[in-house]
């Protein structure tokens, strides 16, 4: 007899006693916690979110106008990440970047644990659920920066669990609009949640038309009502329906301006290879799994596979949904109960302890850091920001937009940066100016003059052409070199001419 994809089995593996199954269940969540906790790469998006969170806390109002750049001062903007930014800044004030990183890693671990738990809840063998959980970690590995998207990933898995639980407890549908209202105030990926609800709704409607027995499952009208109310709930944000224009505009601009993570998956990159492998694995499971799949599951697979084709960043939703469906397609076998043992308990405890000791706050106790640097790129940027403050307090600074994110947080004066990562607020003309200056195209100095730039903070690995041009120009002098950053300050006589 075939088993529907959303049916909870009457008997499933219990994890109440210490067995090796504990270790299997902990493996994927511990892995993603360790990987993200040990990461010391530059946290690009984090800093402008912290800057806006600080502004919200200090002014007791949401940032609806730009206060960080001198190129588009006071330009209206939409910031539906505001709630995440406030929480992140409060965490930063409490424990610095280490605490923010720990919270991000913990939320990612809970996300992966949720995927594994959904599989176990559906009766998938624990070993299989753990293996698929590890595959999810590899799939998400290219998009694991500290940013509000982490909250979206967690809420997406919670939404999936709620929709599956509603197959047996229809009252669970009543909590979904509340989740969507929260989601619309923490990150712009909330429409993907509506897509997931829509897939379940479509499946329920078609099943009703085909007159299939619904049992305890929600009726089509209940699912339609849930979808409509959930959509209306997303309007419960400071911008109402206009937040959808922000989401649409951001993704469209990111694609048109060739932002790397918004490009289509490339088969010749690691992220693209993992994505293609996941599609092939799902196809093989669908062909050879020999399991009956409900219509909503097939719709989810097709819809989210299509979404993942658009960009690397959108592929994360494919991995989270595909993992859930894959666990239901796995050939069913009776799982033998594991024997309880003290050794099994110690093995699980070791995995958990390995994750805990990798928390950033415990870096001094972790031997891994004896073999790699514990320094962050932000430490060099902090020294560079201090040097800028010393040489030219209150100056307008040009840097690569990724560094502009940190400068908007570190420099004590507002409207200090040319551009940061908020690509949706910058017009095409400014984007063109940024590109021409970055590549030192003819007229680059005139563009800097027109924007009143007084300081260049250049990356030796990124601005080689601009560094060479600034070194030859009589208008600029090299003031400081720290790590991979070089500071050029406009010469005093040319600065006065610019002011005139």
User: Can you count the beta strands?
Assistant: 4
Approximately how much beta-strand content do the residues carry? Answer: under 5%
Rg calc: 25 Å
Largest pleated sheet: 4 strands, mixed
Pattern of helices and strands: HHHHHHHHHHHHHHEHHHEHEEH
What spatial order of strands do you see in the largest sheet?
1-2-4-3
Calculate the mean pLDDT score and round it.
Answer: 86
List keywords for this structure.
500 residues; mainly alpha; four-stranded mixed β-sheet; 19 helices; 57% helix; 4% strand
SSE layout and pairings?
Blueprint: H1 20-38, H2 46-59, H3 82-121, H4 126-140, H5 149-165, H6 176-183, H7 190-209, H8 220-233, H9 243-256, H10 270-288, H11 295-308, H12 315-329, H13 342-357, H14 377-391, E1 397-399, H15 401-410, H16 428-438, H17 444-450, E2 455-459, H18 464-472, E3 476-482, E4 485-490, H19 492-499
Parallel strand pairs: 1-2
Antiparallel strand pairs: 2-4, 3-4
Helix pairs in contact: 1-3, 1-4, 1-13, 2-3, 2-15, 3-4, 3-5, 3-12, 4-12, 5-7, 5-12, 6-8, 7-8, 7-11, 10-12, 11-12, 14-15, 16-17
């Amino acid at each position: 007899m075939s088993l529907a994809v959303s049916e909870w089995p009457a008997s499933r593996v219990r994890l109440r006693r210490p067995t090796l199954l504990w270790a299997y269940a902990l493996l994927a969540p511990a892995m993603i916690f360790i990987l993200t906790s040990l990461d010391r790469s530059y946290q690009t998006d984090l800093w402008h979110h912290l800057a806006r969170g600080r502004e919200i806390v200090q002014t007791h109002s949401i940032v609806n106008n730009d206060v960080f750049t001198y190129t588009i001062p006071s330009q209206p903007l939409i910031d539906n990440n505001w709630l995440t930014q406030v929480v992140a800044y409060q965490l930063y004030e409490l424990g610095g970047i280490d605490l923010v990183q720990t919270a991000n890693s913990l939320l990612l671990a809970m996300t992966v644990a949720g995927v594994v738990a959904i599989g176990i809840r559906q009766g998938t063998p624990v070993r299989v659920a753990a293996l698929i959980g590890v595959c999810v970690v590899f799939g998400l590995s290219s998009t694991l920066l500290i940013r509000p998207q982490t909250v979206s990933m967690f809420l997406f898995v919670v939404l999936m669990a709620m929709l599956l639980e509603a197959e047996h407890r229809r009252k669970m549908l009543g909590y979904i609009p509340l989740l969507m209202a929260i989601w619309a105030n923490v990150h712009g990926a909330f429409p993907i949640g509506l897509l997931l609800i829509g897939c379940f709704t479509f499946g329920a409607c078609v099943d009703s038309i085909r007159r299939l027995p619904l049992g305890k499952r929600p009726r089509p009208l209940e699912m339609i009502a849930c979808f409509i109310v959930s959509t209306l709930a997303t309007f419960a944000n400071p911008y109402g329906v206009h937040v959808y224009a922000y989401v649409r505009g951001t993704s469209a601009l990111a694609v048109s301006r060739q932002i790397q993570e918004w490009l289509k998956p490339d088969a010749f990159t690691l992220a693209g290879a993992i994505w293609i492998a996941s599609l092939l694995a799902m196809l093989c499971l669908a062909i050879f799994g020999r399991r009956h799949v409900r219509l909503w599951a097939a719709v989810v697979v097709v819809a989210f596979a299509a979404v993942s084709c658009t960009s690397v960043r959108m592929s994360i939703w494919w991995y989270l949904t595909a993992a859930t469906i894959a666990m239901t397609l796995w050939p069913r076998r009776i799982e033998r109960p594991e024997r309880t043992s003290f050794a099994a308990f110690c093995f699980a405890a070791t995995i958990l302890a390995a994750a805990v000791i990798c928390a950033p706050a415990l870096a001094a106790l972790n031997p891994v850091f004896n073999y790699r640097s514990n320094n962050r790129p932000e430490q060099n940027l902090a020294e560079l920001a201090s040097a800028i403050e010393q040489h030219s307090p209150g100056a307008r600074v040009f840097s690569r937009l990724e560094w502009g994110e940190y400068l908007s947080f570190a420099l004590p004066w507002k409207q200090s940066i040319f551009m940061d990562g908020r690509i949706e607020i910058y017009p095409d003309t400014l984007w063109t100016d940024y590109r021409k200056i970055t590549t030192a195209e003819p007229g680059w100095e005139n563009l800097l003059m027109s924007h009143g730039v007084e300081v260049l903070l250049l990356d030796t690995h990124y601005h080689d052409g601009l560094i060479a041009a600034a070194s030859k120009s009589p208008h600029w002098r090299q003031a400081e070199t720290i790590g991979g950053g070089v500071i050029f300050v406009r010469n005093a006589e040319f600065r006065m001419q610019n002011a005139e």
